[in-house]
Amino acid sequence: MPDYLPQDSGESSLWSATAIANPVNRQLQQSLQADVLVVGGGYTGLSSALHLAEQGVSVVLLEANSIGFGGSGRNAGLVNAGVWQNPDHVRRELGAEAGERFNLALRDSPALVSDLVDRFRMDCDLQRVGTVNVAHNAAALKSLEDRCRQLQEIGAAVEMIDGETAREISASQVYRHGGIHDPGAATIHPLNYARSLARAAMELGAQLFQESAIEGLVRQNDRWLATTAHGEVSAEQVIIATNAYADGNSQQVRESTVPVFIFQCATRPLQDDVAANIIPRRHGLWDTQLMLTSSRIDRDRRLIMSSAGRLQGFRRAIRVNWMTRSRDWLFPQTRGVEWEYQWSGQVGVTGSKILRIQLLAPGVFAPAGYNGRGIGPGSVIGKHLAQTIVSGNRNDFPFPIEALYREKWRSSRAGYYSYGTLAMQLLGRR
Ligand SMILES: Cc1cc2nc3c(=O)[nH]c(=O)nc-3n(C[C@H](O)[C@H](O)[C@H](O)COP(=O)(O)OP(=O)(O)OC[C@H]3O[C@@H](n4cnc5c(N)ncnc54)[C@H](O)[C@@H]3O)c2cc1C
Predict the structure, then answer these.
(1) Domains in the chain, CATH or no CATH each
(2) Each residue's pLDDT tens digit, 182-218
(3) Pocket of ligand 1 contains residue 326 by CB under 6 Å
(4) CA distance 136 to 272
């Protein structure tokens, strides 16, 4: 069976090139019975399968492509707490009580990732170095101060750092205003985390299959019957964890988010003197620019940067060119270093900017819309879904469970993001 991570033409992924072996190597070609069927082999599905299997539940996971094919194998690897939006925004959207439960459930998500990595001895380069949300100007620092206060109010162990510390942490003259430091956050090899979750779930007894897209899901004798091209699974409950990559029979989940692309570029390994003089303590950074940029260094001393957009067709040259100008502005010490890898991936954005746990039918859950932050949330949601299925008690589930939501004007909004970012990158000074 091929073991690949297809990309748009011309793309190459650092994560694919440096991945550990994929533990899943079979396609569903039989008829199986399970307590729970999980659809989708990203963090949400894998964490669900792992935590279900750990509690003795029989679980089958079907992945349409390969493990980590979606956002989980393509992301920037910043293991951050919470969600993009401030705690106050979450409370406004969900109501005071539900919002507080939501905020608290995701407040320590990096700790769950860290715990899983330790417990299952995962080989995924987790660097427990902390991350910094850096201000690119003085006005942005004001909004970060407000965000930091809100995070501290819910008990998050974050702190403001001053301009001098931000400059020292980043080794960038641009990041000289300060930022929010989260010492509990981390960086990770995202695809290896996905593959490690798959291995751990299998060791606990979960049955995982790839190249096994579900094509149909029907109710039959009080159970759900999912069919693939060559097999079928009958289960009492189903977790459709296909999120922004939903395809085939899970297409309706796709419509609950607006597709927005993010691309990344990774340099060749930096020479020792350059590597020592850039993000020297290896924090993960992301900034406050409208064209948000993240930066980190991996274990091989590559600088990896991300920003908005898809590397497709003629857009690729424009976007990569902008990234080079941006890098030279932020980190002139890397001027002239070649990009070795360039790839992109899709995130599911919601109008409220808050993720949704949807109930498509009795016993069929579909989390979606992580808005670009899913390493911690996917891991946490998988764990909570597993607990809720085992206990049968939804009162302890810390997220609102909603009906399927269809985002409006999806294509136009996706086009607006795509061409808006392209125009900014084409015309932008850097
Ligand atoms: C470029 C990029 C950068 C990002 N950076 C970060 C970051 O630094 N930090 C962070 O926390 N988050 C980041 N994210 C977000 C994060 O990657 C996602 O939120 C997370 O991976 C979502 O995980 P998931 O398991 O819910 O979905 P996915 O990982 O997308 O998995 C869904 C899976 O379902 C499968 N599937 C679809 N249809 C079917 C079907 N019919 N049958 C069977 N399987 C099916 C797909 O093939 C896919 O593998 C980033 C995302 C991208 C794209």
Answers:
(1) 14-412+419-424 (3.50.50.60)
(2) 999 999 999 999 999 999 999 999 999 999 999 999 9
(3) no
(4) 27
